[in-house]
Amino acid sequence: MDIKRDAYLQQLIERKDNGMIKVITGIRRCGKSFLLFNIFKRYLLENGADAEHIIEIALDGIENEELRDPKVCFRYIKDAMKDSGRYYLLLDEVQFMPRFEEVLNSLLRISNIDVYVTGSNSKFLSSDIVTEFRGRGDEVRIYPLSFAEFYSAYDGDYDDAWNDYMTYGGLPQVAGFQNDRQKAEYLRNILANVYLKDVIERYKLQSVDEIGILVDVLASAIGAPTNPSKIANTFASERQMNYTNKTISHHIDLLAEAFLISKASRYDIKGRKYIGANLKYYFTDLGLRNARLKFRQQESTHIMENIVYNELLLRGYNVDVGVVDVYDKDKEGKRIRKQLEVDFVVNQGSQRYYIQVAYDMTSEEKQTQEFNSLRNIPDSFKKIVIVNGTKKPWRNDEGFVIMGMKYFLLNADSLEF
């Protein structure tokens, strides 16, 4: 299935020949290789590049095992450059090569080569590239298919596409399968045999059972504040397992580095500061999350929240979970403090949006619950409620924007309404 990924292609085009190493990151099987070797290569060929000046190396393939040796790989690339013309190196899954930083640094000193690499682990980006390339590494983060990308190639109506996406996620391979059994089996298999196996083998983890159960706990808790202490208590009380806070925190970091999950920090809106405890965790692909739970626990509101969070990230926003302190009186008239939650505090440059996600807003009680947090925010940035369904945006009497999920997902500038 050839699904257009124009936003990512445009990012590569904008970075072409900029003297930096273009680093394409993202969870495995999200389409990095297809973007590089199919979509971007086709663009290069259609815009004057000579096929002999495009060097392609997929380091995760057994046929290129010898090229995982950094010296062998560097010599191979140098030997492929026969003249002084412009060359384009497309290097896939660079983390398979030890000392890859030295190879890429050496390539930076060659004036007629433009380098593009992919990697499935954020650690090499956040540490090695920032440190070793001294500002000459340029990241393009790839996500599984957005709903708009998924829907563009879907053979069916919106409702069917939405139900499929909520259940099986947006990995491109899954989108090409024709029946639910294929999708479910594929997701279960790659989660166990690719994603978790990668983490376990890469970091030589001994606690295989624990990290599997940790994924289950995080999958069950999307949309709910949690922390390593709570998780450790769950292991101790329900599983009789001694899984320490420190180890849990470390393993969560490893899952995030492998792009399986993302962390959303909590932000005190009135106090204008971050709150260290009780982060929220979201899955990069909901199909993997649902498969891990054997397609049980299909809570529509939390799944919608996860989809909105991912969509905001791929649009380039910084996203936190908001907290608003309000004061009320108890039955005895004593003043008490309450914390109300704003699902997302969304920032980009000088712009800010406050977003609530609600599956159903038909009851007065539900409207009160969703609006109260927004009413207590002491600034004038736009306040948005995203509801399930296909409603076009409208403003209520308080100036809050209410829009259907379909409009939000299928309009890239939907927050600007």
From TrEMBL:
Matching Pfam families: AAA_14, DUF4143
Domain AAA, first and last residues per copy: 20-150
User: In which domain of life is the source organism classified?
Assistant: Bacteria
Residue runs in coiled coils: none
Gene Ontology MF: a single term:
ATP binding
**Ranges for domain DUF4143:** 197-359
Instruction: Kindly state which keywords UniProt assigns to this record, in alphabetical order.
Output: ATP-binding, Nucleotide-binding
What is the recorded name of this protein? ATP-binding protein
Give the organism the record lists. Answer: Ventrimonas faecis
